[in-house]
Amino acid sequence: MSSTARRLYVRRDTFPIAGTFRISRGAKTEAEVVVAEVVESCKRGRGECVPYARYGESLDETVKTLESLAGAVADGLDRERLRALLPPGAARNALDCALWDLEAKQAGKPAWRLAGLPDAPKKLTTCYTLSVDEPAAMAASAKARAADHPLLKMKLTGEGDLDRVRAVREAAPTTRLIVDANEAWTLEMLRRFAPVLADLGVELIEQPLPAGEDEALRGIDCPVALGADESCHGLESLSRLKGIYRVVNIKLDKTGGLTEALLLKQAAQESGFDIMVGCMVATSLAMAPAVLLAQGARYVDLDGPLLLAEDRTPALHYDGGTLCPPAPELWG
């Protein structure tokens, strides 16, 4: 193989989480990620993904899938052909973002220009996520973060959630709040919880019911906006969410990369949805492409690196809840 031929490298990395990150489905103390790196001549593009068991993904299978594309990458695989080869998901995300990064470096232009954005990315206000815990512990975390984070996101899990939200609201009386049940509620819980949450100033309830049970929400009179997370993946998932959710949470690991995420965002806006751009617990390399996607979004949830005990170098710069656009040395 020529020294200038395009080559694909795939590796697994592990980063410690600061404490324990807990949602309704379980807890973890490490962020395990997969990195795709495409090298051509002296230029290198990188992308990072988080395989998620909830979607039938694993680290080993993601690495195997990516490694199987080494020949296609050497033959000049581009992002559009990649969309045809792989379904939405983590593996496609890592390689799609690596190709964006490589294209930007080869062209000598920032990725936002290649994406056709009208302006350079601006600073964003990201929420900070409080993992599920006892009410007092969540309140203490909220109090410690409220001064620097004007938007907090609470992970919830079912019975006892109203006590959790009341405790956080008392600890952070002026902070904006959104909550995420991660599919843990029943319809009865939603009907019972939502009026109280509205009174407590909660702006958004993410994914109250399991994905696949969305139709139960159609026509429901909910005083708090509902957002689709686990129910929203690629473009094909959007049509069935109309009339059920007001907000869609777009994540690169679900769409399979920035290419489809940009298309999904445009389609969602044209369909009248508000946009949330979210993330998995991952490093700055995974967040960087999402900063482009999050421009103009109603809600930004790109706090993954803030939950880590250690991030990559170079890293994104956060000033409390303010997220600065990535430097080209990191991505794009």
TrEMBL record:
One of its GO terms (molecular function) is racemase and epimerase activity, acting on amino acids and derivatives. Its EC number is 5.1.1.-. Gene3D superfamilies: Enolase-like C-terminal domain (3.20.20.120), Enolase-like, N-terminal domain (3.30.390.10). GO terms for biological process: amino acid catabolic process. InterPro entries: DgoD-like, Dipeptide_epimerase, Enolase-like_C_sf, Enolase-like_N, Enolase_C-like, Mandel_Rmase/mucon_lact_enz_CS, Mandelate_racemase_C, Mandelate_racemase_N_dom. The active site is at residues 155, 251. Coiled coil: none annotated. Its cofactor is Mg(2+). Keywords: Isomerase, Magnesium, Metal-binding. It comes from the Bacteria. It is an enzyme of class 5 (isomerase). This is Dipeptide epimerase. The lineage of its organism: Bacteria, Pseudomonadati, Pseudomonadota, Alphaproteobacteria, Rhodospirillales.
